[in-house]
Amino acid sequence: MKNMLIFLCCSFSLCVSANPKVQFVENLKAGEKQTIVTFGTSLTAVGAWVGQLQVVLNQQFPGQAKVVNGAQGGANSSWGKGALDKKVLAHKPDTVFIEFAINDAVERRKVSVEKAQENLEDMIRRILKQNPQCEIILMTMNVPVGHTGVQRPKIADYYQMYRDEAKRHGFKLIDHNASWKKVLEESPELYIQYMPDCIHPLYDGALKVITPKMIQSLGLEPGNAAKSEETPCFNYIYRTMDRLIEANWQVTREEYELFWANHFKMQDANKDGLIQSNEYPEEGIFKHFDANGDQAVSLEEYQKVYAYNFNKYDKKNTGVIMIKKDKFNY
């Protein structure tokens, strides 16, 4: 009987559990085929790490590993309970990765830590009922910053619940949150490049932070994750920009700047036309935006930081960024 791997994704940061070896990796080494389901929020649904993981597995175990992305943008654990049969169990996985903490923590959704734990336990019970040998891997994710962090004042409690659940069940925990905290503390300017909308890591954030942590925690060889060309998060964010003026699968500089002007307004809680430090609590990122050091960030300062990504992707200097016509789980 093949063992099933299910990844429940909510918050990301890698912690090695009491079990030093990951069963699905051992099964792959033994020549067995494995089905892996990733299950969680937009951090998984449009996470470039999913494609990067598939590429690394293909490099080391050609034709043996199938990674199915069962996540959904905007989802929390209540959605996960309802979607489990279709998105996870229908694939008869050997392993499942699970992460829902980041959206359970949104204060306005009124999902308590206790309720989130109850939902997670329900998913675990049903996965193991289908296949007692299925491997479940829990994940914590990145640190939401700016207005996305303000919306999640108790995110640390939800991530801790995932750590506690992993320990209680003897599951592997990948604690991406710890990795992202390190980047935030040491290179806040890099953090905002990796995660410009304050919550969704782009391709480089996955390649430099998420995927290496997964490879290390899973006991895989380093491989070359950069061979993956999937950029779902980039495509999702830029498709949102594309719809602001004219939906034509390309983003003009005007659309790009309008998107970030609207994003600025989300940070500006008191609507005074400036972002104060209490509106953007992450000191390092705030200082990165506050170019003149006057303890307030203007729209012009904000736009200057974000000009980086447009210039990076407008490689031919045409004033337009083209978007791939991909499907999104959002």
From TrEMBL:
Which residues are the signal sequence here? 1-18
What Pfam families does the entry give?
A: Lipase_GDSL_2
**Sorted alphabetically, which keywords does the UniProt record give?**
Signal
* Segments forming domain EF-hand: 285-312
- UniProt name for this protein: GDSL-type esterase/lipase family protein
| Organism the protein comes from | Lentisphaera profundi
